[in-house]
């Protein structure tokens, strides 16, 4: 590509190179091989990459090494997904002139959307970055990807892009199916570019909303799949709080302080019964947790300002607020009663990106818990902590309330940790994401970057192989309403 300096020109060259890469015409078998080649290359250079990431992000080398493994696993997972083939939703309806209206020969499947822009995340410099989940799922779909690097780890982004492109070339794939650009202006130009057909984003609600508005205000609006803010509410039942308060507190403290509380699934809002031993146990557990230097100075500043705004309110009890030291943000635990939450739900559902959790004390399920839960906004997750001796109606109440606003409801666990699986859903109503019917993790993440096409009375030789008579590639498909495994 010719050297240029203007952001718009750089983006134009990057997008046109990606569009001309030919990835959309590749076979599923070819793309699966290329995904595995990139996974192998990433794993082979793990030690070098972890060292760079540790220097740029302050995350621990152990955490980062595990994240490299996760990222390689994601790439291989999507290779398996496209080889299996059901994601195509291949459907064949044979002609039936006896129907009213008559039915022609109809064959439908999903095809690649086109060039996809991916905005890398700050908090997962591998798993949601250059070769992360958005890139893996878009590439698997057959969409070339232009990645906008995150400014929090620029050196790492460049090196991972080099490794990915080199792996593609070595394995016979098109290197320009993966292109990297940098800078805020480049990000805006990327969303505006007429050849970009979709956007994947992981980041703040404010930044995501600005890009979402830009994407839908284009002359030709495009889909914007943003994973944004989430407080991930937890409901603790009285029986659960009484059964093992120390264990429950240790689990919460470990979850909300993990890696400095810099997870989109951090439990930031916890409904607890008033007057239990749990609070004292949490104070002890959180007080022992170490501070963490956050990913960037601006994030540290934002966390300090946001936590101060919360803890200085008259209706907030501050239970834990260690002093920040040497640039490290200390854990914060605050508490309010359910009436205060109901009086100002927006303020208390503000996401604090860092080690902070807010307890909401309730008296009883019907009296003050239910009205508070009814005011919850969209989140990625909701958690119910319950015990065998619990009233089933209370667990059902919590399940219904959290199921209304969360993309994933879990029981007796903690939401920090998102498994890579066919059944996973990582999304939720606004502000958790801009498209609650989609996920950014799991097999169906690929659906974001596909669009349907139906062929009517088409000659066999113009049909994709997956739709031809006899199902030559053996993909799962529905034929005259009957699903065949392939």
Rg from alpha-carbon coordinates: 24 Å
Taken from the alpha-carbon principal axes, the silhouette is: globular
CATH architectural category of the largest domain: 3-Layer(aba) Sandwich
Task: Work out the helix count.
Answer: 16
Beta-strand content estimate: 15-25%
Q: What count of domains describes the coordinates?
A: 2
Strand order of the largest sheet: 10-11-12-9-8-13-14
Percent helix, as a range, is 25-40%
Description:
With about 475 residues, this protein is α/β, with parallel strands linked by helices. Helix 8 links the parallel strand 6 and strand 7. It is globular and about 75 Å long.
List keywords for this structure.
single chain; seven-stranded mixed sheet; 486 residues; 18% strand; 39% helix; alpha/beta; Aldehyde Dehydrogenase, Chain A, domain 2; 16 helices; 2 domains; five-stranded mixed sheet; Aldehyde Dehydrogenase, Chain A, domain 1; 17 strands
Structure in a nutshell:
The chain is 39% helix and 18% strand.
Question: What is the topological layout?
Answer:
Elements: H1 7-19, H2 28-44, H3 46-57, H4 61-84, E1 90-93, E2 106-112, E3 115-119, H5 133-141, E4 145-148, H6 154-170, E5 178-181, H7 184-192, E6 196-202, H8 205-216, E7 224-227, E8 233-236, H9 238-243, H10 245-256, E9 269-273, H11 278-287, H12 297-311, E10 317-321, E11 332-337, H13 338-343, H14 345-348, E12 356-362, H15 365-373, E13 379-385, H16 392-405, E14 406-411, E15 450-456, E16 477-479, E17 482-484
Parallel strand pairs: 1-16, 3-4, 3-6, 4-5, 6-7, 8-9, 8-13, 9-12, 11-12, 13-14
Antiparallel strand pairs: 1-2, 2-15, 10-11, 16-17
């Amino acid at each position: 590509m010719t050297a240029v300096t203007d952001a718009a020109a750089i983006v134009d060259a990057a997008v046109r190179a990606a569009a001309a890469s030919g990835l959309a015409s590749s076979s599923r078998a070819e793309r699966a091989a290329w995904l595995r080649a990139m996974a192998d290359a990433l794993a082979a250079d793990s030690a070098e990459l972890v060292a760079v990431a540790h220097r740029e992000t302050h995350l621990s080398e152990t955490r980062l090494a595990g994240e490299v493994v996760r990222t390689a696993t994601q790439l291989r997972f999507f290779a398996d997904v496209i080889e299996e083939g059901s994601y195509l939703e291949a459907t064949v309806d044979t002609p039936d002139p006896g129907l009213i209206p008559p039915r022609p020969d109809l064959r439908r499947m999903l095809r690649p959307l086109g060039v996809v822009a991916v905005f890398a995340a700050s908090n997962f410099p591998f798993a949601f970055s250059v070769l992360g989940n958005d890139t893996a799922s878009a590439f698997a779909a057959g969409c070339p990807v232009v990645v906008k690097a995150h400014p929090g780890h620029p050196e790492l982004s460049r090196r991972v892009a080099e490794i990915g492109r080199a792996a593609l070339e070595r394995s016979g794939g098109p290197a320009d199916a993966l292109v990297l650009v940098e800078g805020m202006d480049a990000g805006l130009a990327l969303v505006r570019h007429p050849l970009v057909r979709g956007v994947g984003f992981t980041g703040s609600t404010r930044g995501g909303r600005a890009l979402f508005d830009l994407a839908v205000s284009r002359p030709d609006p495009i889909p914007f799949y943003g994973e944004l803010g989430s407080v991930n509410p937890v409901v603790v039942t009285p029986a659960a709080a009484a059964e093992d308060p120390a264990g429950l507190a240790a689990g919460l403290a470990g979850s909300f302080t993990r890696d400095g509380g810099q997870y989109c699934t951090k439990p930031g809002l916890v409904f607890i019964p008033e007057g239990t031993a749990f609070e004292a146990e949490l104070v002890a557990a959180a007080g022992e947790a170490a501070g963490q230097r956050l990913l960037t100075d601006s994030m540290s500043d934002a966390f300090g300002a946001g936590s101060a705004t919360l803890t200085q309110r008259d209706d907030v009890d501050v239970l834990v607020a260690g002093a920040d030291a040497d640039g490290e943000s200390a854990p914060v635990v605050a508490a309010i009663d359910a009436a205060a939450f109901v009086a100002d739900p927006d303020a208390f559902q503000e996401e604090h990106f860092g080690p902070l959790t807010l307890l909401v004390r309730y008296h009883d399920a019907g009296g003050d818990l239910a009205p508070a839960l009814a005011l919850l906004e969209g989140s990625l997750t909701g958690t119910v902590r319950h015990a065998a001796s619990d009233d089933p109606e209370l667990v059902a109440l919590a399940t219904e309330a959290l199921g209304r606003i969360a993309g994933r409801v879990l029981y007796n666990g903690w939401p920090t940790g998102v498994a890579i699986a066919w059944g996973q859903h990582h999304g939720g109503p606004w502000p958790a994401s801009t498209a609650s019917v989609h996920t950014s993790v799991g097999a169906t993440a690929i659906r974001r970057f596909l669009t349907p096409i139906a062929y009517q009375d088409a000659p066999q030789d113009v049909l994709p192989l997956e739709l031809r008579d006899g199902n030559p590639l053996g993909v799962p498909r529905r034929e005259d309403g009957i699903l065949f495994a392939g």
